[in-house]
Amino acid sequence: MGIVMDRSALTDFLALEFPQVADSFAIERVDANELVARLIVGPQHLRPGGTVSGPSIFALADLAIYCAILSRIGPVALAVTTSASVDFMRKPAAGRDLLAHCRLLKLGRLLAVADALITSEGQPDPVARASMTYAIPPKA
């Protein structure tokens, strides 16, 4: 299955369906092998000590994987996370956005499995790794 929603379509979808968070994220790239999403790090994403919080890193992974799935199946707002695991590996670099590099591992009719490797912009070593499963609602 090829790309159904490109970067522009995903950006428009997020603005329409999730306006409360759309300004914190950007879809950087979508192709047949990978989706890259950005967390635009602001003060609301920081924990004491000035590092990006775990919930913000989780949110980036969840949004990025969701968009990777939608890029293939189209605008299915009710696709939901059914399983999630995040390994936090190192402190993000100060003052840098985070990037999630996602790939779909399995895309079925009712379930999708994907992973995301999260890095600080400009840094090669991963900050976190996430693996998630999504339930896709049956077509009506």
Descriptive account of the structure:
The chain is of the alpha+beta class and 140 residues long. It has one domain: Roll (Thiol Ester Dehydrase, Chain A). The protein contains 2 helices and 6 strands; from the N terminus they run H-E-E-H-E-E-E-E. It has helices spanning 7-17, 54-73, and strands at 25-30, 35-39, 80-88, 98-107, 111-120, 126-135. A 6-stranded antiparallel beta sheet has the order 1-2-4-5-6-3. The longest helix has 20 residues, at 54-73. GO terms for molecular function: hydrolase activity.
**Number of E-state strands:** 6
Widest β-sheet, arrangement of strands = 1-2-4-5-6-3
Helix content: 10-25%
> Into which percentage range does the β-strand content fall?
35-45%
Provide a concise account of the structure shown.
The chain has 140 residues and is α+β, with helices and mostly antiparallel strands.
